Amino acid sequence: MYDYLVGEVAAKGPGYVVLEAGGIGYRLTVTPRCAERIAVNGTAKLYAHFHVREDEHRLYGFSAREERDAFECLLGASGVGPALAIQILSHLSPAELRRAVVAEDVKRISGAKGVGQKTARKIVLDLKSVLEKRLDFEAGAPPAGEFSPRRARPREEALRALVALGLTESSAATALAKVAEPDGGEAESRSVETLVRLALSPLYS
Fold it and tell me: 122 and 146: one domain?
């Protein structure tokens, strides 16, 4: 229903922001990280998720699209509702969440308020295959949708190869982003081996 809202911040408090847009005040539930970035009487753009239940309609707001996307991914996990998803994103950034899930780091995920070991294991089980593909959550990675499926597969395989060689996922994603476009050709024509070699070349030059 809503993708984002732009307006003046009329008020904010613990866990919420009131954004005035078009003469309407929208109250959005936000993470502490999001609230810290927003100043009252300033202008803000918040990516929105409208959650509907029989007994409640609520707007959630996020300062970055990746945060909103991570929130919606979490809602796909068994036993995770909006309140718990907000708690998890108050504890972990989208990139940190992705790394923890892919690495099956149950302890890291269960560090969020209200998340026990059992819930953390369900999150890993339900979301690992989904978050492995979300390279856009990583700093320096291209936005979602920038690469076609044919193009994304070699990048994903190259990312795994670089991590296996000792790079962190963040460093590997940044290195791949820098070599995404070959000179005079399409990135999708590059093999995994070529992407890995080009990503590593600055490290050993």
Answer: no
